[in-house]
Amino acid sequence: MSKTAQKRLLKELQQLMKDSSTGIVAGPRSENDLFVWDCLIQGPPDTPYEGGIFNAKLEFPKDYPLSPPKLTFTPSILHPNIYHNGEVCISILHSPGDDPNMYELAEERWSPVQSVEKILLSVMSMLSEPNVESGANVDACILWRDNRPEFELQVKRSILQSLGF
Amino acid sequence: MTDLESDDSLLLEFEDDDSESISNIDAPTDSKATHLDSDFANIPPHNVDTDDSEFDIDESQFSEDDLEDDYLVFPIKKTTKDLLDEDSLPSLKYECLTTQEIFDSMKRRVHHLQPVFSLPPQDILILMQRYDWNEERLLEEWTEKMDNLLIESGLNTSGESDGRGVKNGKEFFCPICCEEILTETFSLECGHEYCIDCYRHYIKDRLNHGKIITCMDCSLALKNEDIDQIMGGASSVKLMDSSIKSFIRKHSNSYKWCPYTDCKCIIHLKDTLSLQEYSRLHASRFVTCSMGHSFCFGCGFEIHAPADCRVTDQWVKKARLECENLNWVLSHTKECPRCSVNIEKNGGCNHMVCSSCRHEFCWICGGDWAPHGSSFYQCAIYKNEDKNKLVADTPKKTLRRYAFFYKMFTEHEVSAKLDWKLGETVGFKVKGLQEKIGVSWIEGQFLTESLKTLNEGRTALKWSFAVAYYSDPSHNLTKIFIDNQGLLSNAVESLSELLQIKSPEVIMKRRTEFYNKAGYVKNRTKALLECGRDLLRKGISKARE
């Protein structure tokens, strides 16, 4: 199984290097281990995250692409769908099996036909449109809902900090 | 005084419990063996080698022990009296099923729904799965949404089945595994085509989720026939199995798995309304699966009467919290009070005879056995030492009180486990009866029945200490309860002792004794259970933190 995973990851990497969508850079952390990737995600324009470049880590399971990878922002960023430890919670990263409430549609869930590129694009759209109904960071949810200017200010401040200002 | 020679390794042995050490202690032959009449210490020893002395024993017992006399008339089988008493509670209606049986009944329902949907059964099966086998909800949604429901459930509505199925080997690039090889492929009507290996891995991964398996790229559902076609075998059975399992998990109010290891039975309680009546009366819903495992439907624990689920829960939690090692220390080895030789108990009876110094003592209190043999079993009474001083419970005193009840509880638990081992030998005994003295199978059943009664008595006794612990010790009913414990304790010990006899001849000779003692245990058990329930109902015994 892990041979399939390696082959598939290699293929995805080639694909990404050939032509990747704007705002996304991703690749394995080291040549020896294809199962941990580093990614850079650009903050989408017209959002509080604009101008920011965010670093994230993708960890692939051995049975990839049957199971989805895990995405963690390092360092974590303030966002309703990102946990304090940086872990991202969006539907594409869950397999259809583990949602007892049928909250998310099956099409939006992980399946073997999804890919790294699709995940990262989903993350970008998550940055522009947070889903506060199934939030991971409750404080961020409340701030986003009740005091948008303060939320944006805090995001901007942390972006500047991360860029060394 | 009493001749307590056993015909086998009656009570105990040294720590190494291989069978050879047993034979060293044993009396050599069956014919020389004499009886165990410890419960009737006032009866002079009998020589049972002659037939009429056997008759003597029975007669003297009947006349000297009034209590036994009362219950003599009751056979072990359920009496009409039992039946009448059980009527005070609504009777439990339940059935024991397997996942296959539940699935079969689901299939019948699918068949039943066929005219409504006019769809192939496979499709209705998918719909039923989607609605967790709840046909009412399914029908409701069906009348509302019709075709949309089919699309939502991943069923093909176009009516064409072009492109569905496994396709023959060809050169194919699979986007999942990124291999370009000669392989069979599979796709549904949607045309999302992948190599058969990837599909197999994918399905294998999903079989245990108990959910509809869809195409990897869209929501079109795979039917059971597709799954079997891809996997080559009856793999869809597994999916149905896990789907039924998740159905059971969702309906845990009326469906429960038998908690015994490896038991695959499911109990389906038919009228959940009666449950309220049960908890009001502090009775528990004990059910028995078709493998003969009994458990409480409410809490999944073993039979815990007279305690109710709340008391049981509290007691078990407390035991976990406080006394994990106390448990081991108390329940395993002990030293002989006279010669300090290490003793491990290997039989269910509490009447111990040290095989080294022949000292007879009680396993529970460590005291001489002689006073225990009389009509009252002293060990089951917790003696409140500071009865006269009404001081507030100091933590130490509370702990000491708890330690006592816990000790009693574990003693009986360990004994019950040993009784269970005894049960394995009872089978051999029955066989021995059949082979050696030509007793018919049905005639030999009194042994198995006695063992069953013993187990029931032991369990009731065990849990009665949980109830007693939470009871107000000054109340009169508590005192009656404790007296009842003593009586049952006595009866259980005496029956347990009887069951240790191994020689088939002796067993047959003393058959009436088995009947009598088992009947007595049965009645005492019932009395204790009723008394315990009274305690709970009247609030004298209350589970507390």
From TrEMBL, chain A:
Active-site feature positions: C89
Catalyzes what?
S-ubiquitinyl-[E1 ubiquitin-activating enzyme]-L-cysteine + [E2 ubiquitin-conjugating enzyme]-L-cysteine = [E1 ubiquitin-activating enzyme]-L-cysteine + S-ubiquitinyl-[E2 ubiquitin-conjugating enzyme]-L-cysteine
Uppermost EC category: transferase
EC numbers on record: 2.3.2.23
Which residue ranges does the record assign to the UBC core domain?
4-164
Q: What Gene Ontology molecular-function terms does this entry list?
A: ATP binding; ubiquitin conjugating enzyme activity
Q: Which GO terms describe its cellular component?
A: CUE1-UBC7 ubiquitin-conjugating enzyme complex; Doa10p ubiquitin ligase complex; Hrd1p ubiquitin ligase ERAD-L complex
Keywords in alphabetical order, please. Answer: ATP-binding, Nucleotide-binding, Thioester bond, Transferase, Ubl conjugation pathway
Task: List this protein's GO terms for biological process.
Answer: chromatin organization; ERAD pathway; fungal-type cell wall organization; inner nuclear membrane-associated protein degradation pathway
Q: According to the lineage, what is the superkingdom?
A: Eukaryota
What pathway, per the record? Protein modification
Q: Tell me its family.
A: Belongs to the ubiquitin-conjugating enzyme family.
What protein name applies here? E2 ubiquitin-conjugating enzyme
Native species: Zygosaccharomyces rouxii
Automatic annotation (TrEMBL), chain B:
Q: Where is the composition biased (Acidic residues)?
A: 1-20
The protein's annotated catalytic reaction(s) are:
[E2 ubiquitin-conjugating enzyme]-S-ubiquitinyl-L-cysteine + [acceptor protein]-L-lysine = [E2 ubiquitin-conjugating enzyme]-L-cysteine + [acceptor protein]-N(6)-ubiquitinyl-L-lysine
CDD domains (UniProt xref): Rcat_RBR_HHARI-like
Q: Where is this region: Disordered?
A: 1-52
**Which superkingdom is the protein from?**
Eukaryota
Q: Which UniProt keywords apply?
A: Metal-binding, Repeat, Transferase, Ubl conjugation pathway, Zinc, Zinc-finger
Q: Sorted alphabetically, which SUPFAM superfamilies does this protein's record hold?
A: RING/U-box
InterPro entries in alphabetical order: ARIH1-like_UBL, E3_UB_ligase_RBR, IBR_dom, TRIAD_supradom, Znf_C3HC4_RING-type, Znf_RING, Znf_RING/FYVE/PHD, Znf_RING_CS
Question: EC number(s) on record?
Answer: 2.3.2.31
Q: Which EC class does it fall in?
A: transferase
Entries under SMART domains matching the protein: IBR, RING
GO molecular-function terms, A-Z:
ubiquitin protein ligase activity; zinc ion binding
GO biological-process terms attached to the record: protein ubiquitination
Which Pfam families would you find in this protein's record?
A: IBR (PF01485), IBR_1 (PF22191), UBA_ARI1 (PF21235), zf-C3HC4 (PF00097)
Report the residue ranges that make up the RING-type domain in this protein.
Answer: 170-383, 174-219
Q: Which PROSITE patterns match?
A: TRIAD, ZF_RING_1, ZF_RING_2
Q: Which PANTHER family match?
A: RBR FAMILY RING FINGER AND IBR DOMAIN-CONTAINING
Q: What is this protein called?
A: RBR-type E3 ubiquitin transferase
